[in-house]
Amino acid sequence: MAAPIVEVRNLRKTYGPKVAVDDVSFAVERGEIFGILGPNGAGKTTTVETLAGLRGADGGAVRVRGIDTQRDPAAVRDILGVQLQEATLHDKITVGEALRLFAGFYAHPADPDELLAMLDLAEHADKQFAKLSGGQKQRLSIALALVGNPEVAILDELTTGLDPQARRATWDLVERVRDTGVTILLVTHFMDEAERLCDRLAIIDGGKVVAEGTPQGLVDGLDDDRTVVVRFAPDDVARGRELLAGLADRHPDVTRTEAAATTEVAVTGTRRVLFAVVPALAEADLVPDDVRTVTRSLEDVFLAVTGRTYQPEAQLAAAATREGDRS
Ligand SMILES: Nc1ncnc2c1ncn2[C@@H]1O[C@H](COP(=O)(O)OP(=O)(O)OP(=O)(O)O)[C@@H](O)[C@H]1O
């Protein structure tokens, strides 16, 4: 098997007493979209900035195409394209000028016009930076990360602040970039984005990798519990609750029953739990309005590995409060 194009081994990075990255390891294969997913403050940006040689590590090793980026950051300048959070340019510079300016920094730059076309920016080439919409600014920042014709592009929180339509357009764009052969390291705190885009991902929490794999593989690795949610018409709710509440005592495949929303009951058990619920309803001639099995997601993976529900913004606020308390 070919050597990974990106390798991070036991990376550690502190800011004074603050341990931002405690122990992070992962490897990215050529051509992948690899996600670094985690709540705000987990250490994602510090990890990629250290990987890009923009920050000095306190321990561990980081390599891009075998090159140690800590020892020789200049050697990866033409290999690695970096789109960092909140990139800003001079208000008056136009899209086309910015791309041509940045193209001049590289030995083998991409054709700015081709990039403009690929990123749906051709019609905005003469627009000044300050007049661009949020989505257009994000697309320009991706274009600037790609203008050096890199083999690997780091994209950090690229859909934060975008509306749903612009987010979906950006996701399509990331896939298009990957299809041109660029390996992508995608930093995100959005679970849906990671699920939708990443071939593999590392979930980071508190400066450590807490889970790694394909989105589906991580979900499949959860324990075998399944939950069925049954919704009743308002007149049937009481009878439905009573019927299903008794199932855990009577049926080996049912472990617990909980009232979900006002008219819903959630029944959890083995993979065969549906076979317990539907016959019980049929026997009582109780026709539900809806029956659905709960789809498990990366949020369940996060809960399973950390013991906490995934609330990226709330955790940031809590951390800020704790830091405020200390100072
Ligand atoms: N320059 C710095 N000086 C001191 N502490 C820092 C610095 N940069 C980051 N930190 C702290 O290090 C921790 C990790 O930050 P980092 O930005 O890497 O996390 P993140 O997962 O990328 O979060 P976000 O999505 O909010 O950027 C946080 O607690 C943050 O407050």
From TrEMBL:
Domain ABC transporter as annotated: residue spans: 6-231
Topology class, membrane: Peripheral membrane protein
PROSITE patterns membership: ABC_TRANSPORTER_1 (PS00211), ABC_TRANSPORTER_2 (PS50893)
InterPro entries per UniProt: AAA+_ATPase, ABC_transporter-like_ATP-bd, ABC_transporter-like_CS, ABC_transporter_ATP-binding, P-loop_NTPase
SMART domains attached to this UniProt entry: AAA
Subcellular location per the Swiss-Prot or TrEMBL entry: Cell membrane
SUPFAM superfamilies for the chain: P-loop containing nucleoside triphosphate hydrolases (SSF52540)
UniProtKB keywords: Antibiotic resistance, ATP-binding, Nucleotide-binding, Transport
Superkingdom assignment: Bacteria
Protein name: ABC transporter domain-containing protein
